[in-house]
Design goal:
Elements lengths: L20 H13 L5 H8 L6 H10 L6 H4 L12 H4 L24 E3 L2 E5 L2 E5 L29 H8 L6 E5 L8 H12 L6 E5 L2 H4 L6 H8 L4 E7 L8 H12 L4 E6 L8 H13 L3 E6 L14 H12 L9 E4 L8 E2 L14
Parallel strand pairs: 3-4, 4-5, 5-6, 6-7, 7-8, 8-9
Antiparallel strand pairs: 1-2, 2-3, 9-10
Helix pairs in contact: 7-9, 11-12
Bound molecules: pyridoxal-5'-phosphate (PLP) and iron/sulfur cluster.
């Protein structure tokens, strides 16, 4: 997954886009620029209660609002508990630091940096933080306190990380992440993919992004070509938490990636008041499958300061995933995981059902 702090302005390409892709790039960049980035504008745009205004202003100072119009359009007008609204509205609750165990760096990223903007926690795969900018500020984000101003901004700044990858023959896969890596132009991403493909020991290229969900127009023909057009096996991992996020335009965008030869996976975060019931999670899986995408992970919330009001107890999550397993094909059930600092992978949360350990017996 991918956050915003401090850096509200989208990264512009260093030169104007050219050729057939020009119009397509103008479209999504215009949508990105037009995103609501102000708590008052958000309250006014959605007609929310005045009583929420002060808290929204204060929480915006902790983690700035970003809310693009194509996502706002999927919020049901007047529904104060709308599952998309809850993901992007700053609430007074964010001023609470949370119970013991909540911190500013809950997943131990500050200790995993091998080069500027390059993290490695797990064998064989390294993660590149390509940008500190996102197309939406998700209020539960575990990177809400990440020092993005220190993260490399553009192609020249990626060089030290690329040299580190070149010198690490044990790496098979590079994950483009952020912020949101698809903030960069197709031209820059294509050049980066080609550069990675020239590193002989790499086999796979993965992208972690929420942009195809929140601004579906970001999935341009040139993007599909940039990510899928090298010898590396590509995968795009998107991030949607509720079926309402997957409207027609969004499903079409995911299907464009798949038709272009790029498998699409989804990761979701289990969130109180957003997707903490079995019917919602099942509908999310079904909508993903309809769009030719597969559920990948369901994440237990990382205990980041300011997000404690989103937490769902792990035991409840286990029951929800067991309920999904009882009604969906195996490939429609995400793996329920949490991140434990120092472990060699995300840690599956298994073992529902009292008698036989339930899904633990895989
Ligand atoms: C989550 C994560 C990955 C990817 O893990 P997978 O289980 O392969 O999806 C890689 N690097 C870092 C630093 C991560 O946090
Ligand atoms: S898209 Fe949302 S969850 Fe992902 S890094 Fe940005 S703010 Fe965090």
């Amino acid at each position: 997954m991918h956050a915003v702090p401090g850096s509200a302005a989208p990264v512009e390409p260093t030169s104007a886009p050219r050729g057939a892709g020009e119009e397509a790039e103008r479209t999504w960049r215009a949508e990105l620029r037009a995103a609501v980035r102000d708590p008052d504008a958000l309250i006014d745009r959605l007609g929310l209660p005045e009583a929420w205004r002060e808290g929204a202003r204060r929480s915006h100072r902790l983690f700035p609002v970003v809310a693009p119009e194509p996502l706002l359009a999927r919020i049901v007008p007047g529904a104060l508990d709308d599952p998309i609204l809850r993901q992007l509205l700053p609430l007074a609750e964010e001023e609470e630091r949370g119970p013991a165990g909540y911190s500013r760096d809950p997943v131990g990223e500050s200790g995993a940096e091998r080069a500027p903007g390059m993290l490695q926690k797990y064998p064989g795969r390294a993660l590149l933080i390509l940008s500190g900018v996102c197309a939406v500020s998700c209020r539960y984000c575990f990177r809400r306190h990440y020092p993005y101003d220190a993260a490399p901004a553009g192609p020249e700044a990626w060089e030290p990380a690329l040299r580190e990858i070149e010198g690490s023959p044990d790496l098979e896969e590079v994950i483009l992440s952020g912020g949101d890596p698809l903030i960069h132009s197709d031209r820059h991403l294509g050049a980066l993919a080609a550069r990675l493909a020239s590193i002989p020991h790499l086999r796979r290229l993965r992208v972690h992004t929420r942009l195809p969900i929140v601004i579906p127009a970001r999935v341009t023909a040139a993007l599909v070509e940039a990510l899928g057009g090298t010898r590396l096996a590509p995968t795009v991992v998107v991030h949607a938490n509720h079926p309402n996020e997957l409207d027609g335009a969004c499903c079409d965008a995911l299907t464009r990636l798949v038709r272009g030869g790029i498998p699409v996976l989804n990761q979701a975060v289990l969130l109180r008041g957003v997707n903490d019931d079995a019917a919602t999670l099942a509908a999310l899986s079904r909508r993903l499958l309809d769009a030719r995408a597969l559920p990948y992970y369901l994440h237990q919330l990382d205990p980041v300061e300011g997000a404690a009001h989103f937490e769902v107890p792990e035991e409840e999550g286990r029951r929800l995933v067991a309920a999904l397993r009882a009604e969906l094909p195996g490939y429609g059930v995400p793996t329920f995981v949490r991140e434990v600092v120092g472990e060699p992978s995300k840690v599956p949360i298994v073992g529902s059902g009292p008698a036989h350990g339930g899904e633990g017996a895989r």
